[in-house]
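Reopening this ticket.

The earlier resolution said the output was attached, but the attachment link was broken on my side. Pasting everything inline this time so it's all in one place.
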Amino acid sequence: MTSTLGSFVTYSLAAPPAVVFDAWVTPRLFATWWGGSDIQVPLESVSMEARPGGTWAATMILGDNVTEFHWRGEFIEVNRPTRLELTMTDEPGDERELLTVDLTAIDDGAGTEMHFSQTGGHLPPEGYEAAAGAWQIAFGALDTLVSK
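Inline output:
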């Protein structure tokens, strides 16, 4: 018997899929929403090679420069504007979480339904539950950005 540990979030955004997709892979946009509006992501810390096999990195700063997370990973699938798969970690070593983003046009193409998952089995169940809450906050910031 296998079970899939992970965070699974469905989120509706007030922008077309291409706009939402671009916010995931454009450093200037990514730095604006990644982590939510209360988190700092210095633009100079963000690098993205949005192609299969390309890498990405970003530094997330919590609080008054108290805690830093140095995220990095690889792009696995880049299919604009409908699908994105990338890996993510802030730990040394080769273990990675898999992020999957599926974007579907809604509201006659003016909006997007985003199906997101973070899987990999490197977190305990409560860790994935906390991650889902953090993603909801980030996706609120993403929606604010793309709906402008």
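Reporter confirms the inline version is readable. The CA atoms of residues 78 and 84 lie 5 Å apart. The chain has one domain: 7-146.
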